[in-house]
């Protein structure tokens, strides 16, 4: 299973992405959106990068028990980040060291588009994680910039 984040907006506060969860057969199993902290384009760690979005690249994911779920996905070995989680929050649009998932609220302007239904999307993702884990599938996160931000 692979989670693909295609970034489409970023500023000093937030980074916004389209999220696709892709199965081993290449079929899209879940589509939504993701939010990370402030945008920075980098490939190697730098002082303070843990307060920014993840670097672009492909990263292994591991399952870790957290307050969100016993099957929370955690990013392994991303430059400048330790145990960055894929999670949810009822109200926050940005959370340190976390990629928040959900659905877009439908606002036309990217700058003002917020996440909604975060818990529901996270629950759907968690169900897919349980399936992949049971089948011993490797889990990956691919992060790329859809267009220059």
Description of the molecule:
With 149 residues, the chain is mainly beta. Helices cover 11% and strands 40% of the residues. The chain contains one helix and nine strands. The chain has one helix spanning 118-134, and strands at 2-10, 14-22, 28-37, 57-64, 72-75, 84-87, 98-104, 115-116, 140-145. The chain has an eight-stranded mixed β-barrel with strand order 1-2-3-7-6-5-4-9. The protein is globular, with a radius of gyration of 14 Å.
Any chance you could write out the topology, listing elements then pairs?
Layout: E1 2-10, E2 14-22, E3 28-37, E4 57-64, E5 72-75, E6 84-87, E7 98-104, E8 115-116, H1 118-134, E9 140-145
Parallel strand pairs: 1-9, 6-7
Antiparallel strand pairs: 1-2, 2-3, 3-7, 4-5, 4-9, 5-6, 7-8
| Radius of gyration from CA coordinates | 14 Å
What's the helix-strand series? EEEEEEEEHE
Structural class: mainly beta
Largest sheet: 8 strands, mixed, barrel
Anisotropy-based shape: globular
Q: Which spans of ≥5 residues are poorly predicted at pLDDT below 50?
A: none
Secondary structure tally, helices? 1
Arithmetic mean of pLDDT: 94
Strand arrangement, largest sheet?
1-2-3-7-6-5-4-9
How many strand segments?
9
Determine the fraction of residues in helical runs and give it as a percent range.
Answer: 10-25%
Q: In what range is the share of β-strand residues?
A: 35-45%
Between the first and last Cα atoms, what is the distance in angstroms?
Answer: 27 Å
